[in-house]
Amino acid sequence: MPAALLSREEVLNRLLDAFRERGYEGASLAELSAATGLVKASLYHHFPGGKSEMATAVLAHLDGMLAEQLYLPLRADLSPAKKVAAMLDTIDTFYDGGRKACLFERLATSVDHTTFRRPLTRAFSTWIDAVEDVCVEAGLSRAAARGRAEDLVIRIEGALVLTAGTGNLKFFERTLTDLRKSLLAR
Amino acid sequence: MPAALLSREEVLNRLLDAFRERGYEGASLAELSAATGLVKASLYHHFPGGKSEMATAVLAHLDGMLAEQLYLPLRADLSPAKKVAAMLDTIDTFYDGGRKACLFERLATSVDHTTFRRPLTRAFSTWIDAVEDVCVEAGLSRAAARGRAEDLVIRIEGALVLTAGTGNLKFFERTLTDLRKSLLAR
DNA sequence: GTCTATACGTGGATAGAC
DNA sequence: GTCTATCCACGTATAGAC
């Protein structure tokens, strides 16, 4: 039996990029095949459930990446302000200033979005919870922190929609700039 | 030659619903056919450019509807507060409390989004401009008004994404509630 | 203006060799 | 674990009758 061409992690990274770029319906098996360098039959070997299972696996993979790169630093021993600044830097890089789409949004607005409802609900609430905690640490009430955290995720997702629709990066940039100032403001 | 079964306006309304429900890639010609009661060949009679032309026509049709139902009332001789309240009521109804998607978002995140870039840019800026003007009328500076208006559209789009992804209407509801309080606040 | 019928590619998916 | 080859349904699109 031939050795694996790419590690599972690398395959998932390539699938992540493909789904973000093309969306769930837009990413055909032919494209996913080209993105990974694996023919369709090989993809089915790794993901017997087909495209739906690929998307679910990519979502779980992304959750792991975010836990490590986005949420864990928010629990570090630094000032809340610094941690928020670092988070927004990471987000800016991850979305490439608004040029790259959000996997959550791509699956949330797919035709089979009900298939992904559970993992998406978990993904959004994990993100919101992490932001909420740092807001509380900065002195906001639990209720206010919750509102700010939900609002942050909502604004980032909305800004990505306007940026994608118009091709104008300013919507994403302004939103991040504003969040830097307003998230922890009293 | 047989009489038209549905008026062009009614056809566009049905196509609008279909695109909002299924998205641009998700809405197949078979579904658009079922939605309008016209077979595929008849749809091509009305829209020789195919699905892309259908979406463009629907977008123009929606622009007309919004001009009349959403933007015109914002220029009426009423207090800014009342006009904003009315606008948010209309928006709440239009998105059915978050249950129905936004056509702009569906096209903005489609694979051929570049095809729709010009009309989408126009559509978003028309919406933003209308809100900006009423904010100015309420006493906000032009710059502040612009920011609030962009933010309103961004938050509505983002709230729709989270609501669709999680199935939880609270994101949309809270966003509208918050906008009612905060849009014109000094 | 609507229909039936059809063309032709591509979609997701599988069988089985190596 | 990867490949070639293939299946069949459905995708968009068109021709031509009424």
Walk me through this protein's architecture.
The structure is a homodimer. Chain A has about 190 residues and is an all-alpha fold. In chain A, about 70% of the residues lie in helices and about 0% in strands. Chain A has nine helices and no strands. In chain A, helix 1 packs across helix 2, helix 4 (about 50-70) runs parallel beside helix 7 (about 115-135) and helix 8 (about 140-165) packs antiparallel against helix 9 (about 170-180). The longest helix of chain A has 25 residues, at about 140-165. The mean pLDDT of chain A is about 95. The interface of A and B includes residues 23, 147, 159, 164 and 165 of A. The first copy, chain A, binds a DNA duplex (18 and 18 nucleotides) through helix 3.
> How much of the polypeptide of chain A forms β-strand, as a percent range?
under 5%
Task: Name the poorly predicted regions of chain A.
Answer: none
Mean pLDDT of chain A: 97
Helix/strand order of chain A, N-terminal first: HHHHHHHHH
Q: Multimeric state of these chains?
A: homodimer
**Biggest sheet details of chain A:** none
Tally of individual helices of chain A = 9
* Rg over alpha carbons of chain A: 18 Å
* Structural shape of chain A: elongated
Distance between the termini of chain A: 62 Å
Q: Give the helix/strand class of chain A.
A: mainly alpha
- How many runs of DSSP E, i.e. beta strands of chain A? 0
Helix content of chain A: over 70%
Which chains share the greatest interface?
A-B, 41 and 41 residues
